[in-house]
Queue: 2 jobs
Job 1
Amino acid sequence: MAQSEKMEQQGGNLSKQSPSTYYLKFQKMPFEEDLFHEFKGHKSLSTDQLPKWTQATKWERGSRKAVSRNLCGFLNTGLGGTVYCGVLDDGSIVGLKLTQYQKDHVVYSLRDLMSRYSPPVPAHRYRVRFVPVLSSDTPEKDREELASVDTRDLVDEEERKTEHQLRTAHYCWCDKDAKVQYANGVIVTSYVIEISILAWNPDAAANMGLGDFLNLHPIHSDEDGKINFRRQARLFQYSLQEIASLTRFEARNRRVTIIDRMQREIAALKQRLPAQNNQVRNAADEGSQ
Ligand SMILES: [Zn+2]
């Protein structure tokens, strides 16, 4: 399949290939779930957006888990990764029908979710793309053109400013509007929503001051206060103690030259800031282990 050859390997696997501009319905993704890729059949970003019938109870495990845990996991490896909404667990591409207003809703929801993490996730660390899913009998020659339709041209700019209801599983005005459109026979395009967390780059200017004193990537907890880590295609929740030892391990692996430089700066700071001596000394001792 042609578009898979162009598939961008996002989430840390930098590739010179350009990202796919469309998917074909019911085809399989060219990779499985792994350290960098997660498939979701739905678009419930946060726990409060999960419909009640999908949530865990005292007796049953939830049938659906929010996308948030996976994004948190990709942040905490520092390696990044992509969640594909509209792709089943086995990699089958089904897509999610979305009007422009519903796409806006997803973008606002994501921004809101990232602001609820601790620490909050700045906009330069994530990205969202809506990749159209075309019927597999679409003639090859028409695919690029169909995929490049900009649905922003089809909507009312004033209406787009209407506030969306974000932290709820209830229908928003954009969902009601979509229902009216289906009922009137309007064909609404399906998409795979690709939400990417970018790999942590300790030397990027935008990241300065966000990490710790060595500028290792920050560890985030999600909107439920949980700290998720991704290992292969699975998520783990670590205790604070485990995170502390992981961070020490990463710190030891950082380039010695950076540690030396930081220690010289810390030594200089110690002389200038006697009140904060203890804190800075502890940090310096960790770095020299
Ligand atoms: Zn909405």
Note: The chain has a mean pLDDT of 84.
Job 2
Amino acid sequence: MNEPATLFVNGNILTLDRFAPHAEALLARDGRIVALGPGSETESQASPATRRIDLGGRTVVPGFNDCHCHILGFGLTLDQIDVGTDAARNIGDIQHLVEQRARQTAEGAWVLGRGYDQNVLQEGRHPTCNDLDGSSHGHPVLLWHTSGHALSCNSSALELAVVHAGTSTPPGGDIERDEHGEPTGVLKESATDLVFNVVPPPAAEQGAEAIIRAMKVMASQGITSASDASTGTGSSIDPELDMYHRAATSGRLRGRITVMPQIRYVAPPDTEQIREPRSFLSGQETEWLRVGPTKLFSDGALTTRTAALREPYTDTAGDGLMMWETPTLDSMIRRAHQGGWQIATHAIGDRAVEIVLDCYARALRETPRRDHRHRIEHCMLLDRELAARIQQLGIVPVLQPGFVSRLGDAYVTGLGMERASQLMPVALFDQLNITVAFSSDRPVIPGAPLDGIRAAVQRLTPAGATLGREHCVSALEAIRHYTMGSAYATHADSEVGALRRGSFADFTVLSDNPAGIPAGELAGVRVEMTVAGGVETYGE
Ligand SMILES: [Zn+2]
């Protein structure tokens, strides 16, 4: 890339570099920071041809790095029906939205939607095929639960998927049934694949466009790097990698992408196979597209009561579910570790966190490796003892503080206040000097980083309860987790994270300094400009 040099002056630049935490000016050339410091000193390195941008005294932070989100998935939802809590308060609203979309949809095509949450719908339950059939106008309908761990579909979708009373429940999943044993259209965890697998996948061009659109929305929220936290669907990862490659070479991509291949393409269950990291995107990795950790699931989600707990849920029988028998999980983790992968395992409940730590510990004992940075995604419910093991093993918790402000009341319902208050124990991690990364898991929640940062500072649920005041962090700490923490979690901290000479010129200009205002005013802070590789990707 041969962009002209750009000099950004008159800024309140919070570099997060502990040796030089503050600067006034930044000179970017060929995508990188070539000078950073006091105004006069930095300006003296610019030439007359250098483009000049006056920041007007505004605050600059390193570009936000959403190290766990679903980029293609989010991009595709931009074309789907939003049945989220802001758009639909009850099942009647959902029926109306489905009906509207079904009327505009070509004959036989799927009507897809995303975002309902039975915890906040007035009926307090998932919509069923009986609810959806009358609004479908003959189209198959699939609505994803906000967590992505459950879905609701209509009878025509069940028919196409050949799911009926005689269908056996797949391991690690649940087919909800009525009193006659007939499926209700609500499928959870691995059972969602039964229906999802019959939805025609997007064409390569459509997928690439969805990725480009996703990164454009994210750039408008200050994001300069993002990781796709489970790349690939179906039997081959190649179609999705092709979409990411097309997006990255389009000249229109507005942020850096790390893909996280699903474990099934790396160390498939019930085999002894292992595929090495360099065999993915080989020859296609650039500064804008790279391969990161492999991703696997161990348990479900709290909002669907499928996260694996040590003690049962308070509002339903049961204590959640593990996706795999422990020997299978252990074998996948062991092989991926031996194959040189960084591993990112989804574990939400304390039972899942413990089992995953056992697997990591065994893999590391067998094949010690320095600086592996294996991760636990979400890492929500755990006690001090498990946190201490995370510290000893060098595991990185990848948290989504925005879950509290979006889903927090459902956590209280499902776990009781005491356990819900201890979710995402950031203070505990800080005490133990554990590097923490922040992210959004978008499209599970809308996912703007400033919303996540505010949630980490306040830990307020939608109903206004504070979940564990002792785990609130300062705005600057939250920004650090959303930038340097995520850079560490993706082994990208030599290039992004803190603003330093030599690193990528990736940063975000804010309307106000989050670290300099009371927590109650954080909601007013806006992203005014985003710069990636020295080029504006949003604003001005
Ligand atoms: Zn996720």
Note: The longest helix spans residues 350-366.
